[in-house]
């Protein structure tokens, strides 16, 4: 069987782009070409950051939209090849062997992408269920901010949760509240039945992410700092940091949460 393995690999390989970070673009670094390869790198980075960060990161709507489109196209291509669509005479030039090898490569690549997407979403759902009360309050605050922005004629900010995640969180809280009420809350005085009583501070009923947890981050931009956030008294930000491109630091999550959300830093 005369098979040129280089030609087969080239037919299913991804081009390697030149990457540059653009600090004006939130959440994702800048790439010269919006290719499947760059999206896979961004997906891997989002998966790693979500696993290592104690808090939910902004939902990568555009990235996952492009990835899922490619997944559907990949599935269709695999089905066509498996059914023999577009394949010539299998007895010539080892055609059947070539198709089987291409199918194996495509299926391996598809499985890798599906694993990253599923693991990313499971990590997010795990945080949602663990800190459901906290993220419900965040969701309510974001909704109010969006209403104010629309009334003022401004564009609404990108959401922390996707629409499906927000629906899941609402349903989860409704089921939990119904279970608690049926189990023991009805025996409490009316003023003691709220599940969000006291907020997330000391003595509150809502558990939030640990802003003091230590994380390892790398700077992607030319320079990043959080001095403005410290001066503004942002929650969890207590130490002034100044990082340069390529530096890797071990820091508290609260001090770098904003930089990770903007895409200026990545969690390792």
TrEMBL record:
A cellular component term, taken from the record's GO annotations: GINS complex
Keywords: DNA replication, Nucleus
InterPro entries reported in the protein's UniProt record: GINS_A, GINS_bundle-like_dom_sf, GINS_Sld5, SLD5_C, Sld5_GINS_A
Domain GINS subunit: from-to ranges: 101-181
Pfam family of the protein (one): Sld5
GO biological process, one term: DNA-templated DNA replication
Domain of life: Eukaryota
Main location: nucleus
Protein task: The GINS complex plays an essential role in the initiation of DNA replication.
PANTHER family (alphabetical): DNA REPLICATION COMPLEX GINS PROTEIN SLD5, SLD5 PROTEIN
Family from the record: Belongs to the GINS4/SLD5 family.
Protein name: DNA replication complex GINS protein SLD5
Species this chain originates from: Cyphellophora europaea (strain CBS 101466)
Lineage of origin: Eukaryota, Fungi, Dikarya, Ascomycota, Pezizomycotina
């Amino acid at each position: 069987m005369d098979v040129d393995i280089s030609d087969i690999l080239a037919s299913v390989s991804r081009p390697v782009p030149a990457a540059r970070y653009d600090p004006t673009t939130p959440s994702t670094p800048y790439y010269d070409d919006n290719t499947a390869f760059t999206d896979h790198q961004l997906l891997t980075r989002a998966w790693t950051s979500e696993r290592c960060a104690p808090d939910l990161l902004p939902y990568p709507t555009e990235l996952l939209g492009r990835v899922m489109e490619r997944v559907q196209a990949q599935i269709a291509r695999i089905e066509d090849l498996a059914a023999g669509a577009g394949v010539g005479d299998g007895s010539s030039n080892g055609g059947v062997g070539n198709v089987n090898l291409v199918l194996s490569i495509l299926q391996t690549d598809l499985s890798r992408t599906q694993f990253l997407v599923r693991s990313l979403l499971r990590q997010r759902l795990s945080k949602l269920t663990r800190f459901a009360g906290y993220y419900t309050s965040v969701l309510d605050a974001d909704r109010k901010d969006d209403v104010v922005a629309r009334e003022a004629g401004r564009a609404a900010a990108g959401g922390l949760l996707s629409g499906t995640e927000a629906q899941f969180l609402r349903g989860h809280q409704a089921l939990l509240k119904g279970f608690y009420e049926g189990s023991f809350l009805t025996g409490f005085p009316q003023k003691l039945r709220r599940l969000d009583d006291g907020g997330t501070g000391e003595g509150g009923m809502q558990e939030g992410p640990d802003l003091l947890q230590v994380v390892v981050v790398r700077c992607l931009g030319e320079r990043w700092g959080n001095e403005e956030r410290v001066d503004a008294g942002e929650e969890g930000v207590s130490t002034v940091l100044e990082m340069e491109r390529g530096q890797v630091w071990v820091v508290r999550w609260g001090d770098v949460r904003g930089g990770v959300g903007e895409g200026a830093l990545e969690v390792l």
